[in-house]
Amino acid sequence: MSTDTAPPQDRGADRLGATATLPGQAQAAHGVLGVQGTIPPVRVEERDLTFDGFRFTCRIVRQGTPRTEPVLVLGGSSQDRNSWVRHEKWLAPLGQVITVDLPGYGTADFLPAKYGVDFLAAAVRHLVEELGLPRINLVAACYGGAIGLRFAQHYPALVKRLLLVGMTTRIPAGYAEAMERWSVMIERGETEPIARELADRFMSPPGTGHVRKHAAVSRLVYQQIVGQSPEELRKSAEHNTRLMRHEWYRPEPSPAIPSLVVTGEYDTLTTPEMGREVAARLPAAWFTTIKETDHLAPVERIADFADLVTRFCTDLSLTDLPYGNTTERLGTSLTPR
Known about the structure:
The chain has about 325 residues and is an alpha/beta fold. The chain has one domain (about 10-170, about 250-330): 3-Layer(aba) Sandwich (Rossmann fold). It has helices at about 25-35, 90, 115-130, 145-155, 175-190, 190-200, 215-225, 230-245, 270-280, 295-300, 300-315; strands spanning about 40-50, 55-65, 70-75, 95-100, 135-140, 160-165, 260-265, 285-290, 330. A nine-stranded mixed sheet has the order 1-2-4-3-5-6-7-8-9, sandwiched between helices. Strand 1 (about 40-50) and strand 2 (about 55-65) form a beta hairpin.
């Protein structure tokens, strides 16, 4: 349910097997981290993979000596592998950051709706194994959160830490009803009203609380959806059908790995109460909200969200953060951090 807000100029990336050095990103990372001396260049690679006959693509960003396990980001249903480009200058110093267009999304092959969350979680496993990664830090937002949690449930040995953003145990009733209408509207080519409605649903209503970049992000959401190509619309319609046919959340056993569930403090789509419910069902989970944000918290406070990811993935303190509210310890096997 999240959306891609990376502007076109941020979308450049080399194709299969190629690498690129991005001095600007390295310089920005130097400023954020306060590192002294020469900063290693950022290297970007893209790899095409195939799982069960469906082609998909991942983006790999590397910089310097790894400080933690690779960070794999699973974005929301309207995001692609380039949606997190503006986060990379803060996340790349962790060592390796991977984003992906799973089958059915971005530039990957069209995926029929009969393939659900289990299949997409298995595709993530295939990606991790093909890249030769023993374990990963998994950051998963909204629909990516549903895939990420299923991945952790089915393949716990591959997950070092799990961070869920805007996640819930159920699709909000109003959203589920709207998806049925949107499928019909997409067939009619009525994208403008869908774009307007989605922008309103992703963003908190006026008067809920102060949200940073509210107007700008709302415009970007609208522009992205209204500007979809026929193939993107076809994938969006199939995604809606997939959501209605398959379980969003399944109460299977979850691994006792360090977990963090995050929402925006003014998120009215996947509310903080819903986030707490997710955290309460995990064995070792913390929960917090990011100040002055709603459902699109990772975009509204990019540097702060990246700092939260960095802290979590390197076992730094998650308390008393200037951009965060109280960190709640909801897992039964937790100790203070």
